[in-house]
Each structure stands twice: as C-alpha cells, then as structure tokens.
Amino acid sequence: MQSYGDETRPLAALSLPSRIVIGVAACAVAVVVAMHLAMMFLHVAPSNTLSKQQGSLISDYVYPEYEQNWKLFAPNPLQQNIAVQARAQLRTEDGTTRTTGWTDVTARDGQDIRHNPMPSHTQQNQLRRGWEFLVNSHNAQNQATGLRGELSERYIKRIMMLRLDGEWTADGGRVERIQVRSMTTPVSPPPWSSEKISVKPVYRVLPWWQVTADDLPKGATNQ
Amino acid sequence: MTSPTPQQPAEASQQTQPSQASSQSPSEAPSSGRPDENRHAPYEETRIERAIGRGFARVTGRAMAPYQTAVIRIGFATTWLLFLVREWPNRHVLYGPDSPWSLDMARQLLDANHAFSVLPWANSSGWFELVYLLAIVSSALLMLGWRTRTMSVLFMIGVLSLQNRSVFIGDGGDNVIHLMALYLVLTRCGQVWSLDARRAKRAASGATDEAPALGRDLVGIVLWSVLGLALAVAQLLGPYGLTWFEHGPFPHIGWSLVFWGLWATHGLWWAVQRYAPGEPRIVLDTLAKLAHNGALLVIMVEVCLIYATAGWYKIQGSRWQDGTAVFYPMHLDYFSPWPALSEALGSNGLMVMLITYGTVIVQVAFPFTLFNRRLKNVLLVVMICEHLSIAFLLGLPFFSLAMIAADAVFLPTNFLTWLSARISGLRKRLVGGAGDPGPAGPPEGGEPEARTQTGGGGHTLVG
User: Fold this and answer.
1) What ipTM did this prediction achieve?
2) In this structure, are B76 and B56 located in the same domain?
C-alpha cells in the first residue's frame, strides 16, 4: 500500500476521459446519497406534507431492507406488563375432552430473564414481539386482517405448542384446540408519585383455535 | 464539473487573501466578469467554485476516517458474532427448522415483501447449519479484517438471511446491525487494524516491486473463483431473491446485479492492479474512495437520525415531560433482570428525573454537537456510559453493543490511535516474554501508522 506512490497524484494529471468518469461518478454518488438520506429522513420523521404526498414512493424505497424504528421508549415508555397466557382442550385416549388451566407463558420468560445478564431472543423477543405482531394485525373484534393476521395467529399457536405441548399431553391425549389471552397490568406509579391508577389487570381473550398437525414445530413433540 | 481542481495549486499561491471565511459571504464573492480581476488570470474561480473544488478534492483524495470505519467494522462484526455464538443453542428455534415461524410462513411473508434471504433456498437443516456457520465465520473474519471487502459482503448476506427469515424475533440492535451490514459493504473498512493492512504493509516492506507480490495472491484468486462459482450455481438454480432488476437494495437494481457487480469489480480491480497499474488503477481507486466516503456519510447521518428520532419523539411523551419515564422500563418483566437493583434505582425520584431529562437532552442535542468537537466527545462518553448501563440494567447487551459500535463512528482519531498504541503495547508486553513471535510476525503487525494521507486502500484481489 505504501508503494502506491501515485496515490497522491492530483486528479488534474489524469487524462480527460478519466476525469470525466470520476466527475460523473462523484455526481452520481452525491445524488444517490442525497436521495437515500432524504428517504431515510422521511421514513423516520412524523407523517408530514411530503411523506403523505410521496407515501408509496418512500415505502417502496425503504421496505424491506431499510425499515427502521427508533421511537425507543417513545413517545412514552410502555407502562404495562402484558402477560400472554394459554390453555388447551385435550382429547384423551378414552374419547373425552379435558380443558387445562391457564399457563402464564410470559411469566416463564420473566423467570428465565431474571438474573440473566444475557437473555436470549427466545426469552425476550419471541413471545413479546409475536404478540405485538398479532395485536397489530387484528382488529378490536379479534379478527385477523389479511395475510399478516393469519400468519400471526399461526405463529402464536405454534409458539404455544412449542412451549407447552409436551406439558399438556404429559398424561396422554392430544391437543385439539388452544385458547390464548393477554393480561395487561399497569405498572404501579413510582412511590413518590401521587398518581392514582387502577392496577387491576385487563384481559383480552381470543377465540379458541383449532390445532392441526401443521402447527406442531418439530421440537414440540420431543420436549 | 469534471474537475475544478487543476487551478487549485496555482490559484492558492497567487491569491494572498487571508480570509478563509464563509464561502457564501456575498460582499466578497468575486465575479469573474469584473474587468480588474480579469487582468490577473484568464479565468478566476468564484468562491463557491473553489469550495466545490476543495470538496471534490477531498472526497476523491482519500477514503476518510480509516480508524472510525475500522472500529465500527470491528464493533458490528463482534456484536453479531457474540450474538450468534450466544444463540448457538437456540439457533434452530430462532432461525432454523424448529422455529415457530416456519420456513413456509417466512416464505409467504418474503414473497410479499421481497426481503433478501438465502435460507428459503432449501428446506433442509443442513443448509441452515451451513448458513449459520458461514455467518459466524464471516463475522469473525470481518472482525479480524481478513479479505475485508469479501467478508463484508458475506457478513451482509449472513445478517440479512437470518434476520429476514425470522423478522419477528429481532429488536433495535438487530435493526442497527441490519442497516450497517448493508452500508459497510461500500466502505474501505479494512484500511487499519486488519489482517489486510498487515499483509499489505509486509508486502510493501518485503518487495520493492509490488506487482509480483500482488500476482501471487493465490488465496484471493481461489476465494474469488469459489465465490463466483457458488454465485453461478445459485443463479442457475434460480432460487428466491436472485433477480436482476427488481426487489434489490436499490430501485431497479436486483440482488443478482449487486452480487455479480461486486464480484466483477473485484476481478477488475485485481486485473487493473496487475496489468494496468497506471491511470486505470487511479481511476478505480478514486471511484472506491468516492463510494467509501458516500457510505461513510450515510452511516454518520444514520446514527444522527437514530438519536434525533429517539429524542424528538420522547419530547412529546408525557412521561418524559414529568420526569418519570426511566422508572417504567425498569419495572417491565421483560426488561428487569435485576429487580432488586431496579427497585433501588427507581426509588429515588430526583435521580430518575435527572436521568430522564438527561437522556432526552443528550439524544436531541447530539446531532448538533457534531459541530463542536469537545462537546461532541463529552456527549459520546455520556451516551456510551448510558448504553453500558442499559446493557446491564435492562438486559439488552447486544442492543447496547450495537449502539456503542454505531456511536464509535464519531470517536476522535487521537483517541483511537492512543487506544491502538496502548493495546499493542499491552500485547507486546504479554507476547514479548514468550520471545520471538515467530510466524505470527511482528507484534505490531496490524497496527496502523498515521496513514491519513495515503488512505491505504491496498485491497488485493478480494480484499
């Protein structure tokens, strides 16, 4: 690298075609960088005149590889603990059905995270973000909206089967249907605050889902 | 626009104007039309033209910030490497065959959003293991700076493939790594602190004539051929994602075009160095510098966007206004690995308020402090400390590491060279006792000298 003595040779010493190539390239880089940065800015900025006008242009450019969300704990940090719980309806060998009690899967994540300096994405993100995905792709009546809604239902179903199938069917039987609900508990205000809020949990209960063989992740059966 | 630079040196000596102030100052801007000025020279540049010329000379002159780009390369590669190693036992559930987000579901989503991933290419666990292993190996080699450019491409493929296959498993840290993996490909991030730099230095000191040394780059030729062959096979099988003119990282540029383009450029660069070391080499080298400087600017602005967005949205939140915001994340089950500690820290209202306000102030202010070196450095220290505490308190080590790596692009060169001297000094002391380092070469091998002028860039075939 040191031997590249010509490294410092001024561009002026180059032939005209070379200078044209470099000049054109410099302009191209400038244009591309400016456009890219403008797109990134409009993507992270609040919805505004320009981004409303050019919405599809911006999203075509940004998605999927440059998607980003930096509203970290903003505008307000999450102030509720959202616990996702599940129960199952089993068909036992003698033909009867049995319904299990609710299992708080989020609480188990919490237990795994406690005193863990390096929580895994499986503990910290899988269920938390999966539930976010489900909530975002369902309407208030708990109906799936579009492909993403259906995918999110399958995803949550499969997460539950991965984690609980072995436990549910430990005494035999087969999971026929599962039901999922979320329990939202507000974080009680800081001790010095005079704020009064109800810390009573609020439930969102989803309808029973039929479980098919397709919903069994490979790992679920041998747990 | 081709080059206003030619006149530069002569111009500078002629002009004795001491005021180097703002180029926009309209009262002083000389217009080339004035007769009295035409007497001096046949053509006199305006200030704006000269400013453009200076800027042009700078962005084509060298690949800027060699130490900063090296440190972010090492930072992101290390973060991703540690993450992959940490998740090794869970890899099948996160990205592999046991994932509740099955490959089938991933394909449905990818067919709709066209994100790039090589994992849908085959539904076998063997393929998955291979990709995961390659992601680990390419991260490690990018960290070390071995064939940096090639590894940066493989690193990007690894990051995109794993993350896009399971999009609902990541967090902010993954998001930063995703973006930076794309940008790093266009930078010369191996100019210093890399095995490439060490090899180039040895080649330069060993051989007075560089050409034979370059020609013997067997490893590079083999690597280039193997990767070209792999790409050709993939292209022939026509799997998901390899299209020419659509669904790529840039409008009308598909991933096939990107990969073949990068591959062909490496080949061209090698051929030009070997057979046409004169002007063609300078032109290619200048184009690479331009790309590097453009990508560097994008990286720096991206970091500013992250902080600006995080800060400005916080200002609008009532909890950030009333000074209690920091209290809440510490009491969320998913982010409180040390409940007793969170409890103790959260019990002091004044402290919580100071941290809450401090966070917002630092985040909003950061982009503006770039105009003041000293203030910027103070804020950098504050932000790095805050991320270190987030890593521990909220149980987000990889997110925090990624953010610290992003911050590092703004670290001052003085500090980085000082750090490098300290580290190599330490290494010398440790290795020195063991006698001659032998085949490992001089202990200060990968150590940089102040190569700010030349800018390095001695990439071998695929380096």
Assistant:
1) 0.93
2) no
